[in-house]
């Protein structure tokens, strides 16, 4: 009985579609391109994954998300630094630094301007052992790199249980040509 009911619904839907089709193929039906009219408001910002999530206090999320990047450092670096020092034992002492040689003030100064840098004449990567924050390749393990820089200390050896998300690869292989992302399951 269910099967007949489903078949009837499918036939009805097909009939409605056929009746509503136009034989005039010359006149466009509906929108013909993107419509950029109207007023737009930025409501979220995340140049580097997890930075906004981790370092911006809840009460400041809306303000951070609508602040232009060139003004973020001046407005939010102190908050980022306080949150980093409260979060990570790798920055327990004022002289502590991460593997980039950045102390908490310098590191959060870099992070507070939440943009994804891109190297136009070198390697584009989040971190490949040599190049750091010069862009982002799809296969870059961004969260582990951020955890290492936050918790790993000067040589990535401090706090090893906090320095890796243990997700070492995408669930499907990336394609070698555009659109590069794997097809859904």
Automatic annotation (TrEMBL):
Residues 1-23 form the signal peptide. InterPro entries: DUF4331. Pfam families: DUF4331. Keywords: Signal. This is DUF4331 family protein.
